[in-house]
Amino acid sequence: MNATTNQATSIKLVLLGESAVGKSSIVLRFVSNDFAENKEPTIGAAFLTQRVTLPDDTIIKFEIWDTAGQERFASLAPMYYRNAQAAVVVYDLTSPQSFLKARHWVKLLREQSGNNIIIALVANKLDLCEEQAQPETEQEETEPRGNVRKVAKEEGQKLADDEGLMFFETSAKTGEGINNVFLSIAEKIPLKKKGNEQESATFNGNGQSENSTSSNGRIDLNARNGSSEACGC
């Protein structure tokens, strides 16, 4: 079937995690292939969309809710992950506290959605480990250096194995592993063929999926309910 005539299956996906772990940067990299330093924290949540095309030409349209990580917004989270078919739980591999928070979110998701929700556990900021591994001067090579990684890969993998999650280590800054997170989720979506759950997709000239957001890739929720604005880490 010609890709331009395919329909996209819409999937609600929520991002959860402590503040400053890079949730918004992950979404920005996925949606716009961009990265911005020193982003402002998300307030409430931000909404974005992006399409991916699977090898069999199936098109998945992700409707992404990027939630705030600050504790004062924690009570709003159930509103965003309710009825979500997929979730990305993010932690910062340099922050043990953020890993503990990720465990908390996984527990809540399992209590609320059981095994009906696809969950990807993502350890972000892999670039910090790679930067540390390459000293810039001879002096740095001889001086003892603290290990920037505080959460071992094995710890994340064990949590994923115990809870039946997918596990990834990523860098929103370099883009490493980001597309693989969303493509892997898309491949696990149990597709439904009901026409009322699908909508038309658009493609660019080379057959790659196009972002269907507004001009800046985001929707300002302040215009509707005052609960959100453009997101940050």
From TrEMBL:
SUPFAM superfamilies: P-loop containing nucleoside triphosphate hydrolases. It comes from the Eukaryota. GO terms for molecular function: GTP binding; GTPase activity. Keywords: Nucleotide-binding. Pfam families: Ras. SMART domains: RAB, RAN, RAS, RHO. Residues 142-156 have a biased composition (Basic and acidic residues). InterPro entries: P-loop_NTPase (IPR027417), Small_GTP-bd (IPR005225), Small_GTPase (IPR001806). Residues 198-217, 224-233 have a biased composition (Polar residues). Residues 132-156, 194-233 are annotated as: Disordered. This is Probable Vacuolar protein sorting-associated protein 21.
